[in-house]
Amino acid sequence: MKQILLMTMMICLFNAEAVRGQTLRDVAATSGHDASAFNPSRHGSTADVMSRFDREMVKAFRAAWRNAGNGLTAVEAVILIIRKADGSCKAVLPDPKGQHYRFTFRLQPGTIAVVHTHPNDSDPRPATADIEIAERFQVPMFTLTIRGMFLYDPTTKVTSRVQGGKDWLISSKWARYRQ
């Protein structure tokens, strides 16, 4: 029953206006969930998140990239990286909405990172609204692009490229982040 409760989804429109002033704890409090399910310090660092990017995560990246038309359209897709109760992680792809230059999805307890696509004709780095979301919810924000995978880390407040080109689609390229 607890697992069903944890899997219950909450609406969160991921744009700057929709989340202004909200934190993951606020979302938890208004939904009846334990706020500790949204405590980023409980989930580890950005390095820990990237150490979880394995073959299964890369399959999710590939599916999101396909849903976004391989970056050739203005459609964006999103992946939530969720820490499960046993400490393992999984990638969750919300149903594609076909939204242009934005994405809407339901935030889940245990979310430790958000990964989303950017169209090829857009800046590959996380946008201002992406950074606001990362800051507000204290979760790393990754972008998948034809020019690489980029990361905004709210802990360090730094944007960096973590993979070049489409190397983020190659499982072995993530080995350097594993301990």
Report on this structure:
- The structure is a single chain.
- The chain has 179 residues and is an alpha+beta fold.
- It has 7 helices and 8 strands, in the order αβαααααββββαβββ.
- It has one domain.
- A hairpin with a 2-residue loop joins β6 and β7 (148-153).
- It is 28% helix and 25% strand.
- Residues 1-43 have low confidence and may be disordered.
- A 6-stranded mixed sheet has the order 3-2-5-6-7-8, with helices on both faces. It has a two-stranded antiparallel ribbon with strand order 1-4.
List the total number of helices.
7
Could you tell me the strand content as a percent range?
25-35%
* Element pattern in H and E: HEHHHHHEEEEHEEE
Number of strands: 8
* Spatial arrangement of strands, main beta sheet: 3-2-5-6-7-8
- End-to-end Cα distance: 34 Å
Q: List the uncertain runs.
A: 1-43
Helix fraction bin: 25-40%
What is the alpha-carbon Rg in Å? 15 Å
* Total tally of structural domains: 1
Give the helix/strand class.
Answer: alpha+beta
Largest sheet: 6 strands, mixed
Mean of all residue-level pLDDT scores: 76
Shape verdict: globular
Please write out the topology.
Blueprint: H1 2-7, E1 10-14, H2 16-19, H3 24-31, H4 40-43, H5 46-51, H6 55-67, E2 78-83, E3 89-92, E4 103-107, E5 111-117, H7 128-137, E6 141-145, E7 148-153, E8 158-164
Parallel strand pairs: 5-6
Antiparallel strand pairs: 1-4, 2-3, 2-5, 6-7, 7-8
Would you kindly provide a brief summary of this structure?
The chain is of the alpha+beta class. The protein has helices at residues 2-7, 16-19, 24-31, 40-43, 46-51, 55-67, 128-137; strands at residues 10-14, 78-83, 89-92, 103-107, 111-117, 141-145, 148-153, 158-164.
